[in-house]
């Protein structure tokens, strides 16, 4: 009688995943924490609202430009070297911001941090795809997706406490111990498992990617305060569209493009990418909508708003490995469809609550939403990448992580625009209530598309 051997993940691989995850987590914590500090920064540096928002927009823009180079970087440079460079870049940005004497210096620090996060984020998933046994792939991808999942929920609470008690500079300096631990684990744990190949960087693709994201990110950011047909919105969105069309044309003309959009020829991959994009858009849009509603409509403090949404992040954290285990044992249909169904029901529940004054009821429903998101998000990512051959997985990972950044920016900007338009025609409280209900409707429509796409795409999987 033979006994089946339990397949384990090597300790060094776990250390490598934790190291890159901590670095990515630090980036998300800074991004979400500093949103709380915007009023303070506006006062300290005498800058208006539209200017201070570039603290987040510039950071996301740099990440969106760097992430598409991840397949090239992985192929050309050792993983450990990439990680050390990413960690040192992010740490440098932390000190630049912590010591900033003006707003320009603050922006430079955020850009340097974006360079580090842009390298680290896809590196984590590349390590999981290459070095985790197939039987544990779903579980480890679920754990890896805890990082972007829990960060937006923890950030406002963390930021509210630190900014209130210690000042905004402490947000940056408080992450130094985390970065030191990350660096130590990465140096010990990250190992090279694939052969390197020196290739030329596709500068044409990189230029078109810059045009694409500068246009789209800037256009969506300006959507709240400018008319659609203005050059700040319509002109920049047109620039983004031209960059996108140029990138598709360029991709099909050369053998090894920087971002291989030919992967979209695979129908299953394209459908899962659509689900991934809309899920991220909904989640980041809702993460903006709920704290905003709790503060402006229910007149709660920023700190209490962060505390109310905090349990939802923990719910997502607990659900992610559960979804991964279900994926490993039962296949993708059950965790993805169950998770997306829970998200849709939660959004309907939030709409049904209407202009409820009980913020804790909103927080309770949000727990179920984040649990559904945590259960499905990593499984969608794993299923989309596992359907590609080994050589295409790094490119697929680059596409996913690139779209993740853009989806977050798009979701936040669309929801902010909807709420802002409602506030123009009503009082701040009533406008926020009406805009929030309209925002829920947009998210519900998106969630229906996600669930329908999942049912059609995955019905023959199990």
TrEMBL record:
Residues 12-462 form the Major facilitator superfamily (MFS) profile domain. This is MFS transporter. Pfam families: MFS_1. InterPro entries: MFS, MFS_dom, MFS_trans_sf. Keywords: Membrane, Transmembrane, Transmembrane helix, Transport. PROSITE patterns: MFS. It is a multi-pass membrane protein. The chain crosses the membrane at residues 12-34, 54-73, 82-105, 111-129, 141-164, 170-191, 203-223, 229-248, 269-290, 302-321, 333-354, 360-386, 398-420, 440-458. SUPFAM superfamilies: MFS general substrate transporter. It is found in: Cell membrane. It comes from Limosilactobacillus alvi.
